[in-house]
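Sharing a chain and its predicted structure for anyone who wants a worked example. Both blocks are below, sequence first, tokens second.
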Amino acid sequence: MDDEFGAGYSRVLANQLVLAALGGKTPTVALADGLAPKAIWLAVCDMQDVPLERRLGRDIAPKK
């Protein structure tokens, strides 16, 4: 979430964004309840209109 939204705003989203797709839980509560991180991330992406091409995170060049 930090890569997509920045360190500060990602914390706000994690603690305050209510995800209807996950039963009205915030990402933090959903993680604590044992939901899969990928499912949580995709629900956040849907709510925040993250484009499909950015849902896998940024590309990092491999170390040589």
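Comments welcome. The mean pLDDT is 93.
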